[in-house]
Amino acid sequence: MLSKRIERLDYPIRKYNALARSLEEKGEKVIYLNVGDPLKYDFRTPRELIEEVYHAMMEGHNYYASSEGVRELQEAISFKEKTWNDVEIEPRNVLVTSGVSEGINALFAALVNEGDKIVIPDPSYPLYISFADFYNARKVFYPALEDQGWIPDTDKLRSLLDKGTKFLVLNNPHNPTGAVYPARIIKEILDIAAENDIPVVSDEIYDALVFDGEFVSAAKVASPDNIIIDLNGFSKTFLATGWRLGYIYLKGPEEKIMQIRSGILNFLMTRLSAVTPMQVALARFARKSPHHLEELKRRLNERRLYTYKRLNEIPGFHMPVAPHGAFYAFPRVDLRMSDEEFAKELLVQEKVFVVYGSGFGEKGRNHVRLVFLPPIELLDEAFKRIERFMRKNLNA
Ligand SMILES: Cc1ncc(COP(=O)(O)O)c(C=O)c1O
């Protein structure tokens, strides 16, 4: 009945949602630490941005937009990239997507044939693995080094790339590890890609959420030969996960990026357009100074430091370096069971929902990912439950 393609699709972050819901239906209070959505806790979309949606709707911006996005938003994204990340991009090289998620799908749809080799970080945000499976690509993983703060092993990466590689995925700041890559590492990766004429897909959705170190966009340090396919969006840094808006921008040799642009746009035409009034609202809001970021980062930083301290106090949990960016912790856990069993048992026994590390790749084995988004009191309750679970199960 079902396609082989859909049977290959797996999304570990939401895999145990039904189990969590069934526990809630029995009256249990589940603490959700699985999904990277600040709005599920006490963060709110900036009021001014919401008001812009109302104005946009009342002004009549309720039609299908063009498939590449509202022109004013393409221009505002170009402005945002210049002012936030010191990157120069032509507005016409920006394509607006329904979230980075759709951007990843569009990218695979436009570029990947069955059997094509794509190179992905290990561990990786799962959607890159899921879409590689969906489109039957050949996945090759380059490892991140946990003892060096989850920085990619560039020697290994060099040995994995060849001229037949379709693209290389970079994700900085990194989900699930919270690593923020130094400029030197990004430059090294870009040089390896340029030597082999391979496009670099750079997912920078957490660009402004950096607490230690400095974020450097791949496009900022790229050489003129690099082909950069940058993915970014409004879910996290504009606190608008449910609006489903993101973007792809392209930078590099004109002929090559025009070809990629037309392939991706061809796919985007099939869904007509991304949501119009929100695009108009973001076009206006993104031109202003991003005042909301200060408060967002201050609160996240408090929760990050608390999480780092508390997790290291739990027997069997190890996290030598605090996450430097994004809002995830990715500790190693000493267990007598697989990380997937651990995550499931923790949910069943203590009603704390984390994601099993092997869902992010081989290097994620014996790890779990949890968000440090909830207020301290809720994090505290979650850590107490995890500690109780560990004391019960560590030597069982
Ligand atoms: C690295 C990364 N890329 C892409 C996404 C997808 O974001 P969205 O589709 O909301 O833009 C996420 C969401 O968690 C992410 O962590």
What is the name of the CATH topology of the largest domain? Aspartate Aminotransferase, domain 2
Q: By helix and strand content, what is the structural category?
A: alpha/beta
Backbone shape: globular
Poorly predicted sequence stretches spanning 5 or more consecutive residues: none
Distance between the termini: 43 Å
Hetero compounds: pyridoxal-5'-phosphate
Strand arrangement, major sheet: 2-9-8-7-6-3-4-5
Question: In DSSP terms, counting alpha (H) and pi (I) runs of 4 or more, how many helices?
Answer: 14
Instruction: Let me know the largest β-sheet.
Output: 8 strands, mixed
Instruction: Please state roughly what percent of the residues sit in beta strands, choosing from under 5%, 5-15%, 15-25%, 25-35%, 35-45% or over 45%.
Output: 5-15%
CATH class of the largest domain: Alpha Beta
Helix and strand element order: HHEHHEHEHEEHEHEHEEHHHEEEHEEEH
What structural keywords apply?
396 residues; alpha/beta; Aspartate Aminotransferase, domain 1; Aspartate Aminotransferase, domain 2; 8-stranded mixed sheet; 3-stranded antiparallel sheet; 41% helix; globular; binds pyridoxal-5'-phosphate
Structure report:
This protein folds into 2 domains: 4-44 and 292-393, Alpha-Beta Complex (Aspartate Aminotransferase, domain 1); 48-285, Aspartate Aminotransferase, domain 2, CATH 3.40.640.10. It has an 8-stranded mixed beta sheet with strand order 2-9-8-7-6-3-4-5, sandwiched between helices. A 3-stranded antiparallel beta sheet has the order 11-15-14, with helices on one face. The protein has a two-stranded parallel ribbon with strand order 1-13. It is built from 14 helices and 15 strands. The chain is an alpha/beta fold and 396 residues long. It is globular, with a radius of gyration of 21 Å. Helix 6 (126-134) links the parallel strand 3 (117-122) and strand 4. The structure holds pyridoxal-5'-phosphate. The site of pyridoxal-5'-phosphate has 13 residues, from helix 5. GO terms for molecular function: pyridoxal phosphate binding; transaminase activity. It is an enzyme of class 2 (transferase). Its EC number is 2.6.1.-. Its cofactor is pyridoxal 5'-phosphate.
